[in-house]
Amino acid sequence: MTVIESTTDINQPVANVYAFLADMNNHQQLMPENIYNWSSTTDEASFTIQNMAKLAIKISNRVENQELTAIPTEKPPFDLELKWTVADNGNGGTTATLIISADLNMMMKMLAAGPLQKLADHQTQKLAEILN
């Protein structure tokens, strides 16, 4: 399993950051420009990644003010899990981490690891921009 992580600090309480992430409608704001055909509800989102694939995900697990896990609703090219964790950073703010776990073979890892890391970094950076 390939695990890709990106972390950011937000100057807001955990409950605010969790509330934003708990609504899949807000995730469109975190996506890079190569994402289109976005459609979402509170629990699910579907979108197309330019020159790659169409993806549909749903929140499969919620632990209030701690973590959210999203998994594909349709069979993706490889098993995938997106997990956001939020924790108090001790300064009245929140440390938010996006963890992407993907079951990639060696060839897929060479092709997909870089873009997945860029996606994770982009999403945490956008989260910080929006909520700070």
TrEMBL record:
Protein name: SRPBCC family protein
Lineage, uppermost ranks: Bacteria, Pseudomonadati, Bacteroidota, Sphingobacteriia, Sphingobacteriales
Highest taxon listed in the record's lineage: Bacteria
InterPro entries, sorted: START-like_dom_sf (IPR023393)
